[in-house]
Structure to design on (355 residues):
């Protein structure tokens, strides 16, 4: 009897290991190799050497870029340097990046570790920048006001909350109002391992305002990028390890109702929305294993998808760019402005293209 029980337990253990390994391989897309899709008019952006994890382009062509993210377990080319926010004017013939000075606060810039970013422009055309920050691998959201003439950011406020314990990305719906994906990645190494390797779908999305903070969507296998439609009616959420983008309807009380999901053969990261067409531009990781287990001889590839007519029954998905890592490693985000495209990465460089 004891031998039978032992054999049963061993069998169950082997079955679990086999199923888990299969799940891990599927979720991280470990066997996918990239077929290159080249764009002829692209070059790497001078001055970005340690990541451009998120970026946002204003309607006037000014682009904010978060750089220097230190992500637990992920490669960093500048592990001892603080992160920074860069600015790029896409109206220039040969645009270059400049680092924005941060003023007016007690923010410890030596610990600045920027992740997802989002902007909000008020009725007076004042531009606010919200930045997910991970000082000492904790999570805060930093609120800045953009000073265009001075090329600087005036720090206004540090936002913390128990429901914002490990924020990945953010989309502003007001100067101090936003939706954020909370992925548990920065909370604890053991928790991180459970989420990554056991596939615990416990990421969630939070609505934050000074008056109310609440979970508005849950059950994601590492919720990542988030953005909103130009008319403000729909919220888009990237489910990183499930290879999905979800469409939610936004209501007047800030709650969200699921409408549809799209599935891809890639790990979807940040989502940018073209304010003119409403198209989604998504930075993706074709092979997640190469991202999390860095090998300079076999670096993580990059991929950019464009999704048109996402609310229709048959959205059009186009692979705009794909590369095996020899040029650009670990793409996270892509955004467009008047026929120009920027592509950012977790820890590597950034790409400027004329489409």
């Amino acid at each position: 009897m004891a031998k039978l029980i032992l054999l049963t337990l061993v069998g169950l253990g082997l079955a679990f290991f086999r199923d888990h390994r299969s799940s891990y391989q599927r979720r991280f897309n470990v066997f996918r190799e990239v077929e290159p899709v080249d764009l002829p008019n692209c070059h790497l952006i001078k001055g970005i050497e340690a990541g451009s994890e998120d970026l946002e382009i204003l309607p006037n062509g000014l682009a904010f870029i978060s750089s220097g993210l230190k992500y637990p377990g992920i490669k960093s080319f500048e592990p001892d340097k603080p992160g920074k926010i860069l600015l790029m004017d896409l109206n220039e013939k040969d645009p270059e990046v400049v680092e924005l000075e941060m003023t007016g606060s007690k923010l410890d810039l030596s610990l600045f570790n920027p992740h997802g970013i989002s902007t909000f422009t008020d009725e007076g055309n004042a531009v606010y920048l919200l930045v997910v920050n991970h000082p000492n691998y904790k999570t805060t959201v930093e609120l800045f006001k953009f000073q265009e003439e001075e090329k600087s950011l005036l720090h206004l406020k540090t936002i913390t909350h128990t429901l914002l314990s490990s924020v990945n990305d953010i989309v502003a719906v007001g100067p101090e109002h936003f939706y954020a994906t909370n992925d548990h990645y920065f909370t604890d190494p053991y928790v991180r391992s459970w989420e990554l390797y056991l596939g615990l779908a416990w990421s969630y999305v939070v609505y934050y305002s000074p008056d109310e903070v609440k979970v508005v969507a849950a059950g994601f296998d590492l919720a990542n990028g988030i953005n909103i439609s130009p008319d403000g009616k729909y919220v888009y959420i990237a489910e990183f390890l499930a290879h999905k983008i979800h469409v939610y309807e936004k209501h007047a009380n800030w709650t969200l109702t699921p409408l549809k999901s799209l599935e891809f053969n890639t790990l979807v990261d940040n989502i940018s929305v073209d304010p003119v067409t409403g198209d989604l531009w998504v930075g993706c990781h074709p092979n997640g294993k190469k991202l999390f287990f860095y090998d300079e001889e076999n670096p993580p590839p990059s991929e950019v998808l464009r999704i048109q007519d996402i609310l229709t029954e048959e959205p059009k998905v186009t692979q705009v760019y794909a590369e095996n890592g020899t040029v650009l490693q670990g793409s996270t985000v892509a955004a467009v402005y008047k026929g120009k495209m920027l592509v950012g990465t977790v820890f590597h460089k950034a790409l400027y293209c004329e489409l």
In short: Residues 1-20 have pLDDT under 50 and may be disordered. DSSP finds three helices and 25 strands in the chain. The domain at 32-354 is CATH 2.120.10.30 (Neuraminidase).
